[in-house]
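HUMAN: Mind making up another protein with tokenized structure?

ASSISTANT:
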Amino acid sequence: MPKSRCILVCQHRSCQRNGSEAVLEALAALGLPGVFASGTDCLGQCSSGPTVQVLPDRAWYCRVTVADVATIAQDHLLDDRPVQRLLHPRFHPVFDLPNPDRDPRNPQELGDPPPRTQLDPSAPDP
């Protein structure tokens, strides 16, 4: 059984132009117990709408389509795993993590510049 959540779907002009009304209808039609979907005024993310916010999880989704609703329902609302590909990068930044396949003792594998070489004072001038 899903935990109680409130899903806010922006219904401001730019989000509506990108299909937020249909997204809200699809979320409301899920009929999951304890899940309430509601339209809201501008969420302030006009360039990346439709914007969906899931509370109390504080998850922000951007560019959500009707096709994404089933994934959000299954992964986030039922399985409690936010949909990574839809998370808004402004609120959920992704940082580069170290690659476990790289050898930390080898700076070239870490992308560092090669070590500087000392000039051999005995070498002839070019």
